[in-house]
Amino acid sequence: MKKPIGIALASLLLVAAHARSEEPFVSPLLGTWAVDISRLPVPPEARPKRVTIIFSQVTPGQLTTRVEVVDPTGALLVAEGTNELNGTIAPVSGNLEADTSAATMPAPTVLVMQLARANVPGSTRIYTVEPDGKSMVETAANFGANGQPAMRFNYFRRVE
Length: 160
Prior knowledge:
Layout: H1 2-21, E1 31-35, E2 50-56, E3 62-70, E4 76-84, E5 86-91, E6 100-107, E7 110-117, E8 120-129, E9 135-143, E10 149-158
Antiparallel strand pairs: 1-2, 1-10, 2-3, 3-4, 5-6, 6-7, 7-8, 8-9, 9-10
C-alpha cells in the first residue's frame, strides 16, 4: 500500500514542478533604463543629451528593445527591434548603429546582443543587471579602426 501512495505522491510532485517551470518569468532587465551621460567615454561636447533603453517582453521568448537617443544638437534618434531570444536574426528599424540583430538571454539578468549593419558585423552588447536591480552595465565590444578588439562600458540606472 505504501508503494502506490509513494508513486502517486512522486507523480504529483512532478506535475507541480512542471507547472511551476512554465510560469512566466519576469526578467529584472525589463523596464526603462537611462545612461549616466557623465560617465560616457567621449568628450562632454560630443555626448548625447539623453540615452534611454526600453526592454519589453512581447511574448515569452521574445524581447523588444527600443533605444532613444537625444543627440548633442537635440535631435531624437530611435532604433527598435524585436528578437527571439534564441540567437536568430531580426530586423532593427531606425538605423542608429544596426539594421539587424541577434540576441540571447543566458541568465535572467544578462542579455547578449550582436549587431550588424549592411551585412557588416557591428558590436556585441552585453547588458548585465546589477544585484540591486536598479543599475545595469552595458559592455560594448567591437573592433577598432586598427583592427584591434575594443570594449567600452556604459552605466545605466532604472527609470521605470
